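Example record for the data management plan.
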Amino acid sequence: MSLAEYLEKTEGVGILGTADSRGKVDLAVYGRPHVIDETTIAFIMRERLSHRNLKFNPQAAYLFIEKGEGYKGKRLYLSKTGEETDPDVIESFSRRKHSGSEAPGENRYVVYFAVEKERPLVGD
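Corresponding structural encoding:
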């Protein structure tokens, strides 16, 4: 099954790990990424710690834990390749429509990553 099919069809929870320039790690719950192709994914991000960390350290990891019994899922090792700030592009990526619950003036981005390595959740 391709990465796009897997992430589209599989229910679960995702966690994005980033680190600042000194290596201090942060973890944040994130929805499924948008799969651009088999080697590129994207997340919509807000101007928060994960996004700030990526300004100084473009490396990240995404852990996806499948819903259900046992420990199934994927680990994706990522390198930031770019970002988009155009509101129309960001809205085209949005899976849910926003009701104005965001903080006024809060910046949003589409952040692109190269998938450097893919591993199962447990083991190799």
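Summary line stored alongside the record: The chain is about 20% helix and 45% strand.
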